[in-house]
Amino acid sequence: LISAFRAGQQRARAMAVMGAAYAACFLLVMGASALVDGGQFARIYLVGGQLTPELVRSADFQNAMWLAMALYLPLAMLFWHAPALVHWHGVTPLKGLFFSAVACMRNFGALAVYVLSWAGLFFGVGLVVMILTVTLGAPELINTLMFPAAMLMAAMFFSSIWFTFRDSFVDDEPAAEPAPESAQD
User: Fold this and answer.
1) DSSP 65-94
2) Which end of the chain is more exposed for a tag (fewer CB within 10 A), N or C?
3) Chain segment 31-63, per-residue pLDDT in tens
4) Which of 65, 78, 12 is nearest to 39 (CA)?
C-alpha cells in the first residue's frame, strides 16, 4: 500500500481517487441495502453486532443481503484489477476501471472457477477446524484455531490475486527474434 503512494504524486493521486471511488461506491451499495431493511444488514456488516436467528430469517434482512451481493459483484469486477493497472501501468483511474471490467467479463468462466474454488477452500478449512474442536471436546478452541487459519487463508487468497492480474494482462510470450541480416557481397 505504501509503495503506491511513493511512486510519485500523479500515481499517488490516482490511487487516492481509486480508493475514494471504491469507498463511495461501497457506501452506495450499503445504502441501497439499507433502503430494503431499514439498515439492519448494513449495520451488522459495517459495525458488527448481535446476529440473531430471527434477524437472519427475516425476509427484509435476506433481501438486503442479496441486493448488496448483487450490487457488489459488478463493483468488484470494476475494481478487481484497476488499482494494479493504475499503479503498474500508469493508466488513469477511469481507464483502469474499464479495463478491469473488460478483463473480468472476458475471463468470467475462469474467475467463477477461481472464486468457487476459494469459497470451497475457506469452507473446507472452517469445517476441518470445527470438526477438530468437536472431536477434541473443546469448543473454546475454535476461536484459537479459526483466527490463524483465517489469516493464513486470507494471505494465500490475496497473494493469488496477482496471478489473476498477470494472466489477464501480462503477455508471457517472448518477443520475436529479429531476422538475421543477410550478408551483402
Assistant:
1) HHHHHHHHHHHHHHHSSHHHHHHHH---HH
2) C
3) 999 999 999 999 998 898 888 889 889 999 999
4) 65
Q: Which three cell numbers stand for residue 33?
A: 441495502
pLDDT digits (tens, 9 = 90+) for 158-178: 999 999 999 898 765 655 565
Question: What residues contact residue 184 under an 8 Å CB cut-off, 6+ apart?
Answer: none
* Grid cell for residue 110: 475462469
Contacting residues for 6 by C-beta, under 8 A, at least 6 apart: 12
Q: Which of 61, 77, 83, 121 is nearest to 5 (CA)?
A: 83
**Structural domain boundaries in the chain:** 1-106, 107-171
- Percentage of residues of the chain with pLDDT beyond 70: 89
